[in-house]
């Protein structure tokens, strides 16, 4: 986001957090769903999206337009959040859409936080991503852009309902719809990171040939927390192809100490001689 949009988003996030602190978790989740429904509307209606972000119109004019469209269609809490967002300055219509979608997601995460389930939701999102990546047929079915989102969402519900938190199921559906313009697996990864951020944590993606023990995972998390100055959550992927050692990715930082990487580097060095 550009500077003006970042300032507007920060203000919207503060309003959401103030609302979530005083509301019941179920109400916050409903508000999140309703805000996401507005994001879907704006994604499908580019002319409306441009009108609601037009800098030539006053904030009051834009918020009045949004209020008239949303009146009676979503709850008052969701409507207030969206109207406040629309009244702010946005650098582009795409950044307005991004902000509304992100606020909807953050409301779902806030509801899980209020219920004490946020850590579990974070883990469930990651584990489901692992299940999908380990099943090529399922991965192809969920990533198929030709299949309607509703059909793919029904498939994920059949896999997750009764086995995962309702917020997890809903967030998987958000990823299926292309959260933030990302692929399904990219959307899931971003949602895991947003859940961690709400808990003031950073995510370390660790690839190993064999699972780390609890003690090893705890030591690694402690070491990374010391490096990054905040608590780090370790997410393991087991891949026998790496042979040994481990690869660790934290944000844009990659530490690849796998045997496979060392063998590849050696092979490349020999090929240059």
Automatic annotation (TrEMBL):
Source organism, top-level taxon: Bacteria
- Keywords in alphabetical order: ATP synthesis, Cell membrane, CF(1), Hydrogen ion transport, Ion transport, Membrane, Transport
Task: Kindly report the protein's main subcellular placement as a broad class.
Answer: membrane
The keyword Transport belongs to this UniProt entry's keyword annotation: yes
- What subcellular compartments does it reside in? Cell membrane; Membrane
Q: Which family does it belong to?
A: Belongs to the ATPase delta chain family.
Looking up PANTHER family in the UniProt record yields: ATP SYNTHASE DELTA CHAIN
Tell me, in a sentence or two, what this protein's role is.
F(1)F(0) ATP synthase produces ATP from ADP in the presence of a proton or sodium gradient. F-type ATPases consist of two structural domains, F(1) containing the extramembraneous catalytic core and F(0) containing the membrane proton channel, linked together by a central stalk and a peripheral stalk. During catalysis, ATP synthesis in the catalytic domain of F(1) is coupled via a rotary mechanism of the central stalk subunits to proton translocation.
Give the protein's recorded name: ATP synthase subunit delta
* Organism, scientific name: Plantactinospora siamensis
